[in-house]
Amino acid sequence: MSNPSPAFASSLYDPLRRWLEFLPPGPDTKAVAELAERFPIIAPNGRRIRFVPPQADGLAYECRVWESGEVETRPGNWHDFFNALVWLSFPQTKLSISARHVQAMTPAGAARGTTRDALTHFDECGIVVLSSRPELLDLLRDFRWKTLFVERRADVLGAMRFVVFGHATYEQLLSPFRGLTAKAVLHEVDDDWLRMPCEDRLAAVDALLAAELASGRYARPRDFQPLPLLGIPGVVAASEAPSYYDDAWQFRPGRRRA
After folding, report:
1. What is the pTM of this model?
2. When you count CB atoms within 10 A of the terminal residue's CB, does the N or C end of the chain come out lower?
């Protein structure tokens, strides 16, 4: 029985579409845990990722994932439901994020620091923007929202792909609100990437992100590009009107590149 929520009609849910087809309505975290048994995720240390109820032993969330493969997952909770689905969709990236969290926590009791803040920002609110047109990525970097999403709208639809990673963003998209913003990483790719079937593209994005994170890239929250999600063509009907992008509170000029 597939999950029929009207919210999932948005193309931004495409990375999770494969799994949503297996699931009943609502945030059925038990059903997601069962999916992980059918489609196992194996960590480099040989641990199998499993989704378990919250534990009361005081072990840090990230340490539990790394040491035992257990991902604490609250029953019936949308936030944790989407976190589990992101694990299934981007397993190598999630493993890479977990490894960097644990590395950044050494020695025990070390201050949280900017690296863990950056990892959390992307884990919660990340999105990957792919394009075969570098000038479109430059418009996004320069916060030129109306030029990008109005004047170059046809090019955006044909030559850009938006791949949501953050599980908090998936939760927020259930009830999207003015100003909803994701933390983007931008990649110029060739047209073959854009023509890939969705599952193949997700696997390629997963490998790319995992390698970048393992290399130490994205060490500060400022390393990510703010992207107002409701400006992406097709996410909300109101964006079909050019005047929609005159809302300077939502589509802010932002910082400029140095």
Report:
1. 0.93
2. C
Classify residue 250 by burial, with Cβ atoms within 10 Å: 0-12, 13-18, 19+.
middle
pLDDT tens per residue across span 150-206:
999 999 999 999 999 999 999 999 999 999 999 999 999 999 999 999 999 999 999
140: closest CA among 221, 76, 225, 202?
A: 225
Q: Where are the domains of the chain?
A: 17-89, 120-246
Strand partners, 185: 128
User: By the 8 A CB rule, do 185 and 218 touch?
Assistant: yes
For residue 187, the cross-strand partners are 130
Q: Which residues contact 68 (CB under 8 A, 6 or more apart)?
A: 47
Residues listed for the chain: 258
Structure tokens given for 82: 């989407």
Closest CA to 84 of 158, 146, 145, 170: 170
Q: From the centroid of its chain, how far is CA 53?
A: 23
Residue bearing tokens 């060739």: 190
Instruction: Give the Cβ contact number of residue 4 at 10 Å.
Output: 10
Give the residue carrying structure tokens 């597939």.
2
